[in-house]
């Protein structure tokens, strides 16, 4: 066994690492979660083999269960990207944040093969194989065994296929880790891949493809692949997704046995030397190493079948030589100096400039492309973005190399500049590109031959930011940590063992020569392609299917024609129909339109004219362009704020202890309690006891003595009068799931008899450890909680800015959206500088509910400086004058109107998003849709906007939370600053030089008392009736149909909330298994709880491209009708209790990050419930629940006459009869006028 150097880790990283290579050649990173390790020992979890032994009876019962139930595998739909690429504009109607779970154990395996290795005759094979490994192994042959076990044990699993590697990962409760790891290990030893399972899972691959068929990003990537060198010359041209055509129809026509090819591909590339395993658990490194070696020793060290593209594994090196490196760059010269104009699905205008570079993976120490991207993508003064915005041509600029294998590969790298254009910018695309080349030319001149002449502060700031990001990095969820690290360990990456943790974060050196070589040699016109995807060329739905064609002629952009060879073109013999409705620019003709054959994307391809190339080679230097100035938001102090002396920091605060009075004669009796406070002036600890009594004890030792203490240690206080015994020390994130209740937490005989241990419940959180009001003046109230868990110089400030107008009209909602967009647009130069330094902000409008949400978070040193700048700008709109504030740039109002018009056009474009929007708007009567807001943009003027904005902001109140490295004085200073700004009448910030100077001071508004804040109004569905909403998909070309069945439980109360959570847990896994895995209704099948404005509910959901809306809806009904008889009633007590325990552990959450905890606390404030300890109380209720209670609840809420239900259907192409959108909106409006409303569940106070 080989041991690699220990990786460098952050000073704040408490994990222990060991990097080894097993005898079989498998490289493994072992991570001991030291915090969880101590907790595991406290509750007797050691990782021994005896702990994960099944009895024959257990295995038989679990196997039987596995045949009927499944965990949602939810393999990621794109190579290295999350499903949907953000295409769904779903509105989250949940009022509770996802609490995650206990600090779990996790594992991830990276296999060094991906879509670039697919054979040309079976494209998508890597992705298909990823799906198949979940379908049973020789040791665990049941098709659903892995998922069923993880579901029962409170775990989760996932996988994704990248271009050069594939990653599989899972997490699970600590005590079940090694059992789950053994099942997982068999994926890489002996998977079954049965033929019948292959046929069924192919439907899942097809459904996944159809879900993303309308994704513009996926389409644009495929245009890149389609126009690259042919597959025989470079695998970049492959179709990575795969679908039924590429994996069944075409292979069968060519007499290729897909099932045999799957096995062959697995045998070629799934071997130990080509794999990287990462595991984390609350166990010692020795224990992890022992168990991993035992379970993965059977993985074959070398390929079972000689690979088509063999990888070289040097015996004396950790690097792998990829066979892809021989292919070189993906685009032939004929595909460069070319512009591709692409027809989108959505209403959008984007331009991308792409240069192909040699592979950059080996340049990780200097990352010259990151340096270039930092300058070109900068958004501060003097940037490309600033220049383009002044001209009215763009809204955004992003630059660099993407982290996925599409852009960063062993064969090549693609450096792109992506520009979000305005309509004018589409017409002025040459000027936009010239501005980019003007900036590049400026960089060339400043940098000189060796890049040594760039201002020194640029690299110094890049290095400083990397250093403090790494130094103060926040903990990751174990599942995220192993997944990210496995990805970094991909055989194609070049990080040495000691740098696997910091290699992607730190800047190690500056290489000016490499920077200049890229600028001079590669970022040239001859090595560039331009892609413009714009609805100015029409949208996909404007054209008939089959329109356009492919030939080998290429239009020259000045109207000439020339022969070309670029692209692996496929001719389309279909006759061309009449010209489509859109009015094309004069330089485009329908007859010249080409069609990418897989997604059917229409596009034009033209060579750049010699005059255009000459213009880019010798650009006019744009005035106002300059390199970034020194960043004023670079933090200068990382000191942690001191706690008040009467509640000072102490190593034992939060610890659970047992205390005995040694003065008492006779047997020593210990009483359980927790240490809740330390008074440094009195050197005394405050203990809260089980009976809620409290007592102070003067300690006899200093902080150094106590900092060395560990669990089970003892000490005396009050000069030997009392003895303390430590039960559990607090860790970062809190006590976690095993933070013991008073006593030993093992008192449930019913659970103990069944070998199911309910997690110990911690004592109530001390009031001083929950948010307290620290400022309350002038309609501004701020809660405060100083962080004691994470000990980093970070803070979170979240503000709810409530207005006196609730249930806003479409006009007011639209004006609120304009206001937020103008804010973001006007503040970008300042906000970007802060964001570079890990200080970020977000402003969102929820105008219909009568409020805005501000979030400012990051390093606390300059947080209030940024907050003051933003709030002063925001409140400048409340004056109600006829002119915009002076900081709004010339012409930017019209640009924002145009941008929002496209945004509204694109909302609800997918059936998946639309079905959720319909449900939410039905439950929130009067909530405007995107059509009504788009209509309000018509004829919108500055005067009208300012009048309505002034009306909205005239009377506002603020309720907020300041949490993190913030002392009480900081909160008071923040409150005084906000209260002062609310009295101001004009903007006085230092940004007027960017505006038109025409702003006038308006009248200051009044305050809105907290008690007058608006509350949610939610529709109460009719008892015993199922309401129906049906609509056609907004995108006529969307093949997906989406169905939701929503059941309204009622007003928020603790028992119904817990019953709903448990019911969802019991439903979601068998629902997924039966409907998705076995019956292949569609890739997206789910069940989830909803918390809509204080009203509890849950929803079952299917998105399908192969079933009609009626079939999907009927299948949900059938599942629910059979749920009691087929699933709940036969469920043994043991399995039911395991589900209860799994849910309880998920609720007893040890916070991973400050932001996660802030989200929970702020959510309780903004919904007015203010039950900061709610998860503990939920677990107390959960412990008392019985199966009969759940059964009765289900019958009442789902099957009984008292149910309140809503069925929503969005019908895609081929999913059923089409429904007019106007009819739907009239129905929702009609229902809104007569439906009963719930009374406000919680009221502001």
Automatic annotation (TrEMBL):
Stretches with biased composition (Pro residues): 574-584
Gene Ontology cellular component annotations, sorted alphabetically: cytoplasm
Peptidase M16 middle/third domain residues: 470-539, 594-651, 766-918
Compositionally biased intervals (Acidic residues): 50-62, 71-99, 542-559
Alphabetic keyword roster: Hydrolase, Metal-binding, Metalloprotease, Protease, Zinc
Matching Pfam families: Peptidase_M16, Peptidase_M16_C, Peptidase_M16_M, PqqF-like_C_4
GO biological process: proteolysis
Domain Peptidase M16 C-terminal stretches: 259-446
Region ranges (Disordered): 40-104, 538-586
The Coenzyme PQQ synthesis protein F-like C-terminal lobe domain, residue ranges: 1062-1159
Domain Peptidase M16 N-terminal: 102-222
Gene Ontology molecular function terms on file: metal ion binding; metalloendopeptidase activity
Family: Belongs to the peptidase M16 family.
UniProt protein name: Uncharacterized protein
Organism: Triparma columacea
């Amino acid at each position: 066994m080989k041991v690699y150097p220990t990786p460098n880790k952050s000073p704040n990283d408490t994990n222990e690492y060991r990097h080894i290579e097993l005898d079989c050649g498998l490289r493994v990173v072992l991570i001991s979660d030291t915090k969880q390790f101590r907790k595991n020992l406290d509750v007797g979890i050691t990782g021994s083999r005896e702990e994960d032994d099944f009895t024959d009876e257990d295995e038989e019962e679990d196997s039987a269960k596995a045949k009927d139930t499944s965990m949602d595998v939810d393999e990621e739909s794109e190579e290295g990207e999350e499903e949907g690429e953000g295409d769904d504009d779903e509105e989250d109607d949940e009022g509770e944040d996802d609490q995650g779970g206990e600090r779990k154990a996790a594992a991830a395996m990276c296999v060094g093969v991906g879509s670039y290795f697919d054979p040309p005759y079976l494209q998508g094979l890597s992705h298909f194989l990823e799906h198949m490994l979940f379908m049973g192994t020789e040791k665990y042959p049941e098709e659903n065994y892995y998922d069923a076990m993880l579901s029962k044990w409170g775990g989760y699993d996932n996988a994704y296929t990248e271009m050069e590697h594939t990653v599989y990962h899972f997490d699970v409760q600590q005590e079940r880790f090694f059992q789950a790891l053994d099942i997982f290990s068999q994926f890489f030893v002996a998977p079954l891949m049965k033929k019948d399972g292959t046929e069924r899972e192919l439907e899942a691959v097809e459904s996944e493809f159809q879900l993303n068929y309308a994704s513009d990003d996926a389409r644009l990537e495929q245009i890149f692949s389609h126009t690259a060198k042919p597959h025989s010359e470079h695998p970049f041209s492959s179709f990575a997704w795969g679908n039924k055509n590429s994996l069944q129809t075409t292979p069968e026509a060519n007499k290729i046995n897909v099932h045999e090819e799957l096995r062959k591909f697995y045998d070629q590339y799934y071997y130990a030397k080509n794999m990287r395993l990462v595991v984390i658990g609350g166990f010692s490194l020795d224990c992890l190493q022992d168990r991993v070696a035992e379970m993965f020793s059977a993985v074959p060290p070398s390929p079972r079948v000689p690979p088509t593209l063999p990888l070289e594994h040097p015996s004396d090196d950790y690097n792998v030589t990829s066979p892809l490196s021989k292919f070189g760059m993906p685009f032939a010269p004929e595909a460069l100096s070319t512009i591709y104009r692409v027809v989108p699905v959505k209403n959008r205008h984007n331009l991308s400039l792409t240069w192909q570079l040699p592979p950059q993976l080996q340049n990780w120490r200097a990352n010259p492309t990151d340096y270039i991207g930092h300058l070109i993508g900068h958004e501060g003064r003097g940037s490309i973005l600033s220049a383009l915005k002044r001209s009215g041509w763009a809204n955004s600029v992003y630059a660099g190399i993407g982290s996925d294998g599409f852009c960063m590969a062993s064969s090549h790298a693609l450096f792109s500049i992506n520009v979000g254009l305005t309509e004018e910018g589409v017409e002025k695309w040459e000027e936009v590109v010239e501005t980019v080349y003007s900036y590049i030319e400026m960089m060339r001149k400043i940098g000189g031959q060796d890049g040594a002449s760039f201002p020194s502060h640029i690299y110094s700031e890049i290095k400083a930011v990397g250093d403090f990001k790494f130094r103060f990095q926040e903990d990751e969820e174990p599942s995220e940590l192993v997944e990210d690290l496995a990805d970094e360990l991909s055989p194609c990456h070049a990080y040495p063992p000691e740098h696997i943790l910091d290699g992607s974060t730190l800047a190690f050196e500056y290489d000016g020569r490499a920077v200049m070589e890229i600028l001079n040699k590669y970022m040239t016109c001859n090595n560039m392609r331009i892609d413009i995807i714009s609805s100015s060329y029409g949208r996909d739905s404007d054209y008939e299917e089959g329109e356009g064609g492919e030939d080998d002629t290429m239009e020259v952009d000045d109207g000439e024609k020339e022969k070309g060879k670029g692209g692996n073109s496929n001719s389309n013999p279909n006759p061309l129909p009449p010209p489509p409705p859109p009015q094309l620019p004069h330089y485009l003709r329908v007859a010249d339109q080409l069609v990418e054959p897989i997604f059917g994307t229409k596009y034009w391809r033209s060579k750049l004219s010699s005059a255009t190339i000459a213009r880019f080679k010798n650009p006019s230097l744009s005035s106002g362009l300059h390199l970034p100035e020194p960043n004023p938001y670079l933090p200068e102090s990382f000191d942690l704020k001191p706690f008040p002396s009467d509640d000072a920091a102490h190593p034992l605060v939060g610890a659970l202890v047992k205390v005995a009075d040694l003065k008492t004669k006779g047997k020593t009796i210990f009483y359980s309690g927790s240490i809740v406070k330390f008074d440094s002036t009195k050197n005394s600890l405050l203990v809260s006891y089980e009976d809620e009594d409290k007592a102070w004890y003067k300690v006899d030792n200093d902080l150094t003595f106590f900092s060395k203490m560990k669990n089970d240690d003892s000490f005396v206080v009050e000069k030997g009068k009392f003895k303390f015994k430590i039960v559990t020390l607090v860790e970062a994130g809190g006590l976690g799931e095993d933070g013991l209740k008073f006593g030993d937490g093992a008192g449930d005989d019913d659970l103990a008899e069944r070998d199911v241990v309910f997690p110990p419940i911690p004592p109530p959180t001390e009031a001083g450890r929950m948010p307290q009001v620290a400022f309350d003046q002038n309609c501004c109230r701020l809660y405060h909680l100083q962080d004691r868990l994470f000990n980093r110089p970070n803070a979170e400030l979240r503000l709810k800015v409530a207005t006196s107008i609730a249930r806003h009209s479409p006009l007011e909602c639209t004006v609120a959206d304009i206001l937020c967009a103008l804010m973001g647009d006007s503040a970008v130069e300042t906000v970007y500088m802060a964001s570079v330094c890990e200080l970020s902000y977000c402003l969102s409008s929820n105008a219909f509910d009568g409020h805005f949400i501000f979030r400012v978070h990051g390093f606390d040193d300059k947080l209030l400086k940024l907050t003051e700048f933003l709030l002063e700008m925001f409140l400048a709109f409340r004056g109600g004058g006829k002119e915009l504030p002076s900081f709004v740039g010339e012409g930017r109002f019209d640009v924002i109107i145009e941008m929002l018009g496209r945004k509204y056009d694109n909302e609800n474009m997918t059936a998946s998003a639309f079905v959720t929007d319909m449900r939410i708007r039905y439950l929130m009567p009067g909530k405007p849709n995107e059509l009504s807001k788009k209509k309000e943009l018509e004829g919108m003027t500055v005067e009208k906007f300012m009048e309505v904005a002034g009306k909205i902001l005239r009377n506002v109140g603020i309720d907020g939370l300041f949490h993190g490295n913030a002392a009480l004085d900081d909160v008071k200073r923040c409150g005084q600053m906000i209260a002062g700004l609310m009295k101001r009448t004009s903007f006085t910030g230092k940004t007027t030089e960017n505006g038109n100077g025409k702003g006038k001071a308006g009248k200051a508004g009044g305050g809105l008392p907290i008690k007058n804040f608006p509350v949610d109004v939610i529709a109460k569905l009719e008892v015993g009736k199922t309401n129906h909403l049906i609509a056609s998909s907004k995108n006529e070309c969307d093949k997906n149909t989406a169905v939701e069945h929503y059941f309204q439980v009622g007003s928020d109360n603790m028992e119904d909330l817990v019953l709903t959570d448990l019911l969802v847990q019991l439903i979601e896994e068998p629902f997924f298994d039966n409907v998705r895995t076995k019956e292949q209704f569609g890739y997206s099948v789910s069940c989830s709880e909803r918390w809509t404005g204080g009203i509890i509910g849950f929803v079952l959901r299917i998105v399908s491209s192969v079933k009609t809306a009626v079939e999907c809806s009927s299948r949900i009904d059938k599942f629910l009708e059979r749920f009691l008889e087929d699933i709940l009633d036969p469920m043994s007590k043991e399995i039911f209790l395991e589900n209860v325990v799994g849910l309880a552990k998920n609720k007893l959450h040890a916070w991973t990050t400050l932001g996660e905890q802030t989200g929970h606390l702020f959510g309780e404030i903004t919904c007015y419930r203010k039950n900061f300890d709610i998860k503990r109380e939920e677990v107390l209720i959960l412990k008392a629940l019985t199966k009969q209670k759940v059964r009765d609840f289900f019958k009442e809420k789902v099957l009984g006459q008292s149910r309140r239900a809503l069925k929503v259907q969005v019908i895609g192409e081929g999913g059923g009869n089409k429904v007019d959108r106007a009819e739907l909106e009239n129905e929702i409006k009609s229902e809104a006028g007569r439906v009963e409303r719930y009374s406000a569940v919680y009221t502001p106070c």
